[in-house]
Amino acid sequence: MNKDNIQENLVNKGRELIQEKGAEFLTARKLSDASGYSVGTIYNQFGNMDNFILIQNYLTLDALYARLAKLRAAGTAYQRLNLYTQEFIDFVLENKNLWFLVHNFHLHNNNRRFSKIYLRRVVQITQLVESAFKALFPNIPLPERILSLQVLWLSLFSLSAFLTTDTLDSFSKINKRSLCELLLNTYLAGMKVLEKL
Amino acid sequence: MNKDNIQENLVNKGRELIQEKGAEFLTARKLSDASGYSVGTIYNQFGNMDNFILIQNYLTLDALYARLAKLRAAGTAYQRLNLYTQEFIDFVLENKNLWFLVHNFHLHNNNRRFSKIYLRRVVQITQLVESAFKALFPNIPLPERILSLQVLWLSLFSLSAFLTTDTLDSFSKINKRSLCELLLNTYLAGMKVLEKL
DNA sequence: GAAAAAAATTGAACACTGTTCAATTTTGTT
DNA sequence: AACAAAATTGAACAGTGTTCAATTTTTTTC
């Protein structure tokens, strides 16, 4: 293994482990065994495991952003918001274990805060959706539009946690896809009404 | 301490610890120290710590249900849904640490499923809200109404995770109360529109 | 009541975490 | 080749959840 890219090798190997065996499987020793590097080296490179997970999470957010950014010029604003949502759902379902980790990182995080580097990615995605929002609701003043956007995006984001587990299966027969799409379309219909008031 | 109520004593003491020091503070040994019972006794009573946390969580859901049930006959259907939401937010903000545990239990739970006893509480609350929904949207057929209700309730439920931490503080200036209320009212407005189609 | 049987309680011990740091190995410099 | 600097290592520490033989307490039986 290329010694010049220890950090990269560890990140890649860790990502494999998460994807294949689940987020819970990722421990310092198992990463050490799987990568061939000692536990100490992991700590030299990342300081602690929380930082390692943080890196995994913003890589995941980067990958999500890349997927959504491809749709930047697709269709009408309304269609685009639906495409964003569908692409978002696809991404989450394709990367259940990685997305699970994004949602459950704050447990280990002492200060319970997004780090700056983490937050930047979330804002980036928000801005992407905001341009579609602007075209769709031109009559809503900016501050309120931002607020509505944030509420919708945070709702979809938090709701997507259910897509990564089978928690819902015993609660509702609802299709996981429909769950998010129904939220989007009902919310957008509501905004159209509130826009006219 | 009353020897006849070991289980009750442990549950109460554990609840105190969670509320005062946070969900992360609750460990078998700390509960043992705080309660005066040995670690072994805790395991005799609850089998494992996951079961203990599960009990804490459905007690929390019971308490939430009790709060919401008081509003069963209040105001119009529309007002009642708003009251439910406000009461829900109040409850979450008053019991941040307990609610945090409700949201983050599935991490430790191997099979990643709600237990039956857990699920019953969630359904109970859903049914409470459904009666207001029925009055508000009489023209929507039952299966679709249930679906819409579940989407709204699950959205509010998952969104409420943000109320228990300061994760959002660096992302948005939005008031935590407004976050949920805006979701509710925009969603309800959207349903009124979709009802007429 | 005393003795025997049953049940409940205990905490040391096991396997697993994240993390540290003196000792070792590797790399770079003179 | 000898030295200095840096990187790597893994045994060791403190903390988890969990188990189970030994102890203590309670109940039953005579």
Structural summary, described in words:
The structure is a homodimer of 197-residue chains. Chain A folds into two domains: 1-47, Homeodomain-like (Arc Repressor Mutant, subunit A), CATH 1.10.10.60; 53-196, Tetracycline Repressor, domain 2, CATH 1.10.357. Chain A has helices at residues 6-21, 28-35, 39-46, 49-69, 77-94, 96-104, 116-136, 142-159, 176-195. Chain A has nine helices and no strands. In chain A, α4 (49-69) packs across α6, α4 (49-69) runs parallel beside α7 and α5 (77-94) packs antiparallel against α7 (116-136). The first copy, chain A, has 197 residues and is mainly alpha-helical. The first copy, chain A, starts with 5 loop residues before the first helix and ends with a helix. Helices cover 71% and strands 0% of the residues of chain A. At the A-B interface, α7, α8 and α9 of A face α7, α8 and α9 of B. Chain A binds a DNA duplex (30 and 30 nucleotides) through α2 and α3.
Layout of helices and strands, plus pairs?
2 copies of one chain form a homodimer.
Chain A: H1 6-21, H2 28-35, H3 39-46, H4 49-69, H5 77-94, H6 96-104, H7 116-136, H8 142-159, H9 176-195
Helix pairs in contact in A: 4-6, 4-7, 5-7, 5-9, 7-8, 8-9
The structure holds a DNA duplex (30 and 30 nucleotides).
